[in-house]
Amino acid sequence: MASSQQLAQLDRLERQVTTLVAAYQQLREELADAHTTIQQLRADVRDRERQLKDFQNQENIVKLVNTIAGEPANANELKLRLNEYIREIDKCLAYLRE
Question: Which residue has the higher pLDDT, 14 or 3?
Answer without folding.
Answer: 14
